[in-house]
Amino acid sequence: MRAVCLLSGGMDSTTLAYVAQEMGYEILALHLTYGQLTEEKERACAERVAGLLGAEEFCEVDVGYFSQFGASALVDPDIPVNDFRDEHEGVPKTYVPFRNGNLLAMAVSYAESRDADAVFIGVQTSDYSGYPDCRLEFIQAFQRAVDLGTAREKPIRLMTPFVQMNKTEILRKGLALDVPYEHTWSCYQSSDAACGVCESCHFRLEAFRALGIEDPIPYRKRP
Questions:
Q1: How far apart (Å, rounded) are the C-alpha atoms in residues 44 and 186?
Q2: Model-level pTM greater than 0.90?
Q3: What per-residue confidence (pLDDT) applies to 129?
Q4: How much is the pLDDT for 87?
């Protein structure tokens, strides 16, 4: 079995790739850059993890048009990345419009070109409240589009093993698989030492604290 794993270099996608390997899949790692502030750090982490996994391929695709569209703190320098405490209810400023729809479409194209059986994406419950393209209903609808729009007789399955898990549960699973979290990066705004205060850092640190473990990556501050 072969699977395309969307590998950002972050905590969730790295754990996801290890889960896919545990399930018996050979890994085709797909890393997409779109002008995010920590692009170089994320790429380095993703490539290192792919190597540790013995991935069959590491494919990097530049989808910089997200920067041209803007409207997200991750790709628009005029929109600041808020500290977690400053975020409000609703769609976070870090939401990139329909990003997962774009990423899944490319991952399915890659999977079909390599005769792969599945695409793994690390959507999870912590993102439901603000990111509409992380909902189970969205994945189910996209699966229907994949079934209709691909030429293979055997369907390409969208695999979302974390869709009903939170960050702490994902971390617990990753620790059991010896996931090298020291080679992952989650911070939205800093590449040398994680800021410790953005939304992504907050949820990552919260998961490590819940399990009584120190996060192995460097931080400027640990609230």
A1: 13
A2: yes
A3: 61
A4: 54
